[in-house]
Design brief:
Layout (H helix, E strand, L loop, with lengths): L15 H5 L12 H13 L5 H8 L3 H14 L2 H10 L3 H9 L6 H12 L3 H9 L6 H13 L2 H9 L6 H13 L2 H9 L6 H13 L2 H9 L6 H12 L3 H11 L2
Length: 253
């Protein structure tokens, strides 16, 4: 099996043009000697094609789609094709691959993590409906979606039961550091702990100069004095005067 995220190499499948000239055959190898011998020999000896080529061939006709799926099964690349289809947001092809037996949990549900990182919300939804584990890799899908600023994807993952406290509330911490205010608010609404790791989310937001995020965290009860007023010291050192003013006001007289 190919490494995570990599496109497999080696003998794979015939060019679509050549496949189109193939007469109708059954995909049952036991019942069809042509498929199990001559046709499969071509499959194994053909030059390597990309997954895009395979996707194009699969879309040409039912027969070609069946042959592509058979080739993927025989060469052990069904899961890799599923991952590539997810990356490319080829939703219909992804659905076909999953229905054909591609393992949504392959490589510890890496497909879900990858599409969450890039904010492919519809694909995230499809993978979840197919049984992807929202908690895989310690809820990495939620963490990377939050860090990347994909609020709709974050909402879908939260609705699917993602744990806002995973990795000591890493999703909140990363969203605050990046200034993704809508995601910070969504995570807080979902119960994220504003005090996780000694209120480090506030420190990150202050150091990065994200004024609205700092305000949201303070409103949620973040401790402005955490770690000896670290948030204030960081904002001051980096010259974020508007953030400094808000933090000083929160310190009181």
């Amino acid at each position: 099996m190919a490494p995570v995220g990599a496109t497999p190499t080696g003998p794979f499948f015939r060019p679509a043009a050549h496949m189109a000239a193939t007469p109708p055959v059954s995909t049952d190898c036991a019942a069809n000697p042509l498929l199990s011998a001559e046709l499969w020999l071509h499959v194994l000896e053909a030059p390597t094609l990309s997954f895009d080529d395979l996707h194009a061939a699969a879309g040409a006709s039912r027969q070609l789609r069946a042959l592509v799926l058979l080739a993927l099964r025989r060469t052990g690349h069904l899961d890799a094709a599923m991952l590539r289809a997810a990356q490319r947001q080829q939703v219909a092809w992804l659905h076909t691959l999953l229905a054909a037996g591609a393992d949504v949990h392959a490589w510890e549900d890496v497909a879900l993590v990858v599409v969450a990182k890039f904010g492919h919300t519809a694909t995230v939804q499809l993978l979840l409906e197919a049984g992807a584990d929202v908690h895989a890799r310690k809820d990495t899908a939620l963490v990377v979606a939050a860090d990347s600023g994909h609020v709709e994807t974050v909402q879908v993952l939260l609705e699917a039961g993602a744990d806002v406290h995973a990795r000591k509330d890493a999703a909140l911490r990363d969203a605050a550091d990046s200034g993704h205010i809508a995601i910070v608010r969504a995570l807080l609404t979902a119960g994220a702990d504003v005090h996780a790791m000694d209120d480090v989310a506030l420190c990150y937001a202050a150091e990065s100069g994200h004024l609205e995020t700092v305000r949201a965290l303070l409103t949620a009860g973040a401790d402005v004095h955490a770690m000896d007023d670290l948030a204030l010291r960081l904002a001051t050192a980096d010259g974020h005067t508007d953030v400094v003013a808000v933090l000083r006001a929160a310190c009181g007289p």
